[in-house]
Amino acid sequence: MAHKPIKKSQLESMREEASSEAMDEARWLLSLSDLLTLLLTFFVMLFAISTPDASKMAEMAKGMGGMMGGAKKAAPAAVDPMGVTQVRIQAVITDNNLVNDVDMASDSRGIVLFSRGDFFFASGGAELLPDTKLFLKKVAAIIKTMPNTVLVEGHTDDVPTHTDIFPSNWELSTARAAMVVRYFVEEEKLDPKQFIVSGYAEYKPRFPPTPENRGKNRRVEIVIMRTQKI
User: What mean pLDDT is predicted for residues 45-71?
Assistant: First the structure.
């Protein structure tokens, strides 16, 4: 029995239907691919904030390249550990409502943390305040993951001191820096070889030495240097 020939309109209808189904499938695959890419990017950001380890980040990036079919492409740019550290420290400052007490800057030496007012010590004293210890504990957790040298500087305002314990601002500024390092080493068990202590009295003010700025210049600066400990 002879088959009836398929009309041209029927062939065109079948082609259009098949083409429509293929396009719907392609759209679905593209949406799924975009979703997976966004999820992977999100997890990489979380990983970068929690773990500033360049080798681990490179390993994860390599794994992602394989998952996305890019294993044969050029290696991704190296992660900047100092940049990741800045993100983590800023999170500590923000999450603990310390934006009015602690500042962070960056200069040729590295990352610089410094206090405003009397956040670290009472005027004329060198005993760490309780809230300061809570902050330093979180900073110590970040330093512990890094091999970098940490310079701790003590500074005073321009008001002279003359006591049996601190005959001048030289002794006071150095004692303040030493107290911070002692906390890191004795309480948080950080490597003492990682630290340098220095005191500058009133001779390195961060702000103009006016009566209004005395609280700002009476400070400790923690410098996470770009160089590694010896």
Answer: 55
